């Protein structure tokens, strides 16, 4: 009898299946309905396999948050890369990527709300949240600086812009009949133009 040889790819595939099942369960059932049993049934694996790869369901949820934030970060980075070399175009691309798939997705909203509900009660989730938003604001500060905004203004502008984008993203994904992605982008661009008015790239 030949014993199956499991590769690193097999392990990565199983881990990813568990992460995807967790995200789907959070979106559909929230924290209360996301258990080891629910995740494993969705992923088609045993509870023992989950515990083999993760130190329980809390650790898996934290890893799912990391994976979700990485997906969002990759979408923003791709948008900036596609915008070319112009600093204003790159800033606008970064900001408006939040209003297009895969970021503007009702399923992602449902999953994100589940993560947010844990920020005040779960130290691991709180740490990931803080790191994610610190990184997002840092990217914005760099893009704003490239557009000529004075360094002293960049931090407060990045905080305000993050709040604006989060609010528009939340409303857009909660009820896309309220306004369109194009309208959300236009509102954000008008805010940016007002902020950058009078700042020269020379």
UniProtKB/TrEMBL annotation:
Gene3D superfamilies xrefs: Tetracycline Repressor, domain 2 (1.10.357.10)
Keywords per UniProt: DNA-binding, Repressor, Transcription, Transcription regulation
Location of the DNA-binding region in this protein: 35-54
Domain HTH tetR-type, chain residue ranges per copy: 12-72
Record's keyword annotation contains Coiled coil: no
Keyword presence, Transcription regulation: yes
Protein's name according to its UniProt entry: Transcriptional regulator BetI
């Amino acid at each position: 009898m030949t014993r199956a040889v499991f590769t690193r790819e097999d392990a990565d595939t199983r881990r990813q299946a568990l992460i995807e099942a967790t995200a789907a369960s959070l979106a559909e059932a929230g924290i209360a309905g996301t258990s080891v049993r629910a995740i494993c049934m969705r992923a088609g694996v045993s509870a023992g396999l989950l515990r083999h790869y993760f130190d329980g369901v809390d650790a898996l949820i934290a890893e799912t948050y990391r994976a979700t934030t990485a997906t969002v970060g990759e979408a923003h980075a791709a948008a900036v890369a596609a915008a070319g070399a112009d600093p204003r175009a790159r800033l606008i691309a970064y900001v408006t990527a939040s209003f297009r798939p895969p970021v503007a997705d009702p399923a992602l909203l449902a999953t994100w709300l589940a993560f947010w509900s844990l920020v005040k009660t779960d130290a691991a989730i709180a740490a990931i949240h803080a790191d994610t938003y610190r990184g997002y604001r840092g990217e914005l500060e760099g893009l704003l600086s490239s557009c000529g905004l004075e360094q002293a203004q960049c931090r407060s502008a990045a905080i305000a812009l993050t709040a604006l984008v989060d609010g528009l993203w939340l409303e857009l994904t909660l009820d896309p009949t309220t306004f369109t992605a194009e309208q959300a982008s236009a509102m954000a661009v008008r805010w940016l133009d007002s902020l950058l008015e009078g700042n020269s790239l020379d």
